Structure formats: structure tokens, C-alpha cells
Amino acid sequence: MGNVRINNDGGRATISGGPTGIVHTTGGPSGLQLHMAKITMAALAGMLTQFMDRPVINATDLKGNYQVTLDLPSDLMNGMPAAQKLTAILGLGSYGMVPDTSGAAIFQAVKGLGLELKSRKDFVETIIVDHMEKTPTAN
Known about the structure:
Blueprint: E1 5-9, E2 12-18, E3 21-28, E4 31-39, H1 41-49, E5 66-73, H2 74-77, H3 82-90, H4 104-111
Antiparallel strand pairs: 1-2, 2-3, 3-4, 4-5
């Protein structure tokens, strides 16, 4: 996470430095609210991937940047260390990071944006390591 910056002002934090751009977070009684003033649908899909047990692909055909406010319920991130939450918010991790592998909470959060997550089969580029050896190094 190269140039990540966090400014904390009471209950509101500003996080920048990832593909999601500048993210303003506000805590509330129901969870965490993320305000992204300028995000592409591809970057949003990448960020949503952090909350799923599989990749999220942008199939909207929407171009440009959008202002998005995403309400994440508190139970979605319960038990996650702060660094893992930061990685998820910035869209910098790998998928399957969040304990809610059913994805039910994130499906509802995305529905609140007027978007829909649909499960479907597609080709995903993967790397498979079938053998590895540890080579001794000099001290």
C-alpha cells in the first residue's frame, strides 16, 4: 500500500491512495458508510470483490466516474483487523477476505446503490503453482 494516507477527524476518516480514490468514511449505528466522490465502476467492482468469496466483474458498460455512497453493515467487518478493513476499503486485497462468505450483506449494500450483483460463470485468469522448492540461501 504505497502512498496510502489517512486523516481522522473524530468519527469521520479520509482514506486515499488506492484504486477507489479518496474515500470518506463515517461510522454510524448501523455500520460504516463509505463516500467515494469519483470512482469508476471497474474500481467499485474491485472494491466489492474484497467482500466476496469470488471476483466481482463490472458488467454495467458504464464509463466515467461516479459519486457513490455505500452503506456497509457493521456485521460485515466484525472481527477484521484494522489493516484488513483498510485493504478492503481501498480495494487492494484479494477476494474472500471477509468472514461473511455468503455475501448477503454486500448484496443488500449494492442493491441500495441501484445496482445488482448476479452470480454467473465466467472465465477468470488464474495462476496455479503445482510445485515449489525452497532453495537454501547463504547467511
